[in-house]
Specification:
By secondary structure, the protein is α+β, with helices and mostly antiparallel strands. It has one domain: Aminopeptidase. Helix content is 34%, strand content 31%. The chain has five helices and eight strands, in the order E-E-H-H-E-E-H-E-H-E-H-E-E. An eight-stranded mixed beta sheet has the order 1-2-3-4-5-6-8-7, with helices on both faces. It starts with a strand and ends in an 8-residue tail after the last strand.
Length: 157
């Protein structure tokens, strides 16, 4: 999907080097471990959404995985979302979250969970703008639990 000069799409194996570099920039030099690289090589198209700028390349991404305690309920967990510092405050995080939720919900996922630090005001704002709601104010002292349910599914189903 193209939006405002950005292509939003699933990760391709050829993107792993660029994704790793951006991940390191956004996570204080942290590297993706070999197991994640292998997983993303095989299933990255389904578990990672990237925002690619025609001139700058991959400038943002959103990573997902299934947690044991949520997968049986059809919930996928947003593990990380990040935008290159040069491209922040342009609504890219909200676009990623909106695009991924539509994609996952159309495939039958019942909901998306995430945990966001209380101090990460920008991430909290984009999640709330994308429709997430705070589920547990007391989950930990540092983080809030948020959830976005599939609007096309009943709670009774």
């Amino acid at each position: 999907m193209e939006r405002d000069g950005l292509e939003l799409r699933g990760l391709r194996p050829a993107d792993l080097r660029r994704l790793s570099k951006l991940h390191g920039l956004l996570r204080s030099g942290a590297k993706l471990n070999v197991w994640r690289l292998l997983l993303f090589c095989v299933a990255g198209r389904k578990l990672i959404l990237v925002a690619e700028n025609a001139t700058a390349g991959i400038i943002a991404f959103e990573m997902f995985y299934f947690r044991k305690d949520e997968s049986a309920s059809g919930i996928i967990h947003e593990a990380f979302i990040g935008v290159h510092p040069d491209f922040r405050n342009r609504g890219i995080s909200k676009s990623l979250r909106t695009h991924s939720s539509k994609s996952y919900f159309s495939s039958g996922i019942r909901g998306i969970s995430t945990n966001i630090s209380r101090e990460n005001v920008a991430s909290l704002a984009s999640a709330l703008c994308a429709g997430f709601t705070i589920q547990d104010h007391t989950s930990t002292h540092e983080k809030l639990s948020l959830f976005l349910g599939n609007p096309s599914l009943d709670d009774d189903a």
